[in-house]
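Model it.
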Amino acid sequence: MNALHVARAWPLAAVLLLAACSDPPAPAVTETVAAGPLLLEARGDGVLRSSRPTPLQVPGTGWSSRRVEWMLPEGSRVKKGDLIARFSSEESEQDLAQALVDLQRNALARAAKDEELASAQGRVGVDMAQVATGLAIARRYAGADLSTLARNDVLDAIEDVHYLEARQDTLQWQRDQADVRGGAEQALLDAQRATFALDAKARREDLDALELRAPNDGVLMLSANWSGVKPATGASLYAGSEFGSLPDASAMEVELSLPQLESQGVRVGQAVEMFPLGRPGDTIASKLSWVASAPKSRSRRDPVKYLSMRAPVPAEAALKFNLVPGQQMRARIIQLDAPKVVSVPNIALRSHAGALAVQVRDGGDFAWRKVRLGVRGVARSQVLSGLSPGDQVLLATAAVPEDDAKDDDAGSDKPGAEAGDGEVADTTADADSTEAEAAEADSP
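Modeled.
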């Protein structure tokens, strides 16, 4: 029995000895609040562009095909009226030739219709003249004295008068119908001729518009199509499609893109310091003039969302540093530069009771305290109210494992105390389990 009690007791003693020799729990990580200088900034890259670009379209109408014979390279500086590109259009030449052929056919058809109408009117006129002559004779005999002519001749003359009058009315109707029908056919041919004439005029204007000239001074920037290909010599384009743009060098701006996590606190009016990529000495000072309402993804393959913003470039700076549209720029956005403010690390901020709060040391424990923030940076944020210099803010509970820390944040306002109780409970359970295994090994 004595040996059995000794076998059961030594595992428990070993566990207690190891617990006594282990390191004590690490204290909670805190930061003492102090008022001091604070600089919050964000850095990003962007592209130089013009805020007033003049769009350039391929000359011509009707989406006719064009082939680029000659063009200036992208980035060329041009003056107003300078030739930018020259085109050729075989399709427009064929269309013009076809329009001229249609005009000639229409003219022949109109001449034939005029002759046909004149011939029909001539035949009807001859018939009407004959009927008029016969009617005059018939009327003379129909009114003659019966003593001078036979009765049958007089009756025949009366019948001839009725027939000739009806014949005369019919011929008059035919002449009127011929005029109406002939006029409608002539009007149709005239309308077709007007259509062909307009088509020929458009083709002539299309052939005359084979040169693209600069509407104002600027730098030539080419536009890519849906497949990402820019215009080049020998390429086929359509009239009216976008060829490029002619940015106004006197109104330049930089369009920046920052990841969503790094763009917190970015607002319109914040100072920007930027320089061309690779030339850090050419610094330009500006301010944000526009910030997008929400971040957006650049592509389906990139899940990161970016916030877009713009900052104008002074005309004298663009001229001094010889900046051109499309140039890569690097910028530093100064969100806050204050000599003495209260700030707190973002890691200390939590959502508690529907508001932002931090845990402040209160004696031996930590108590929740609501705070009102000013400018939020990537790592730190400005505190407007809720904290005072000397307060100790909880940053992390280093003695608690990650899973237990999550449970403590959700269920308790005093991290650390419950975690120590849990560790003791687990050690006791392990000791009981070891003692039970030793007892089973000694029993017969």
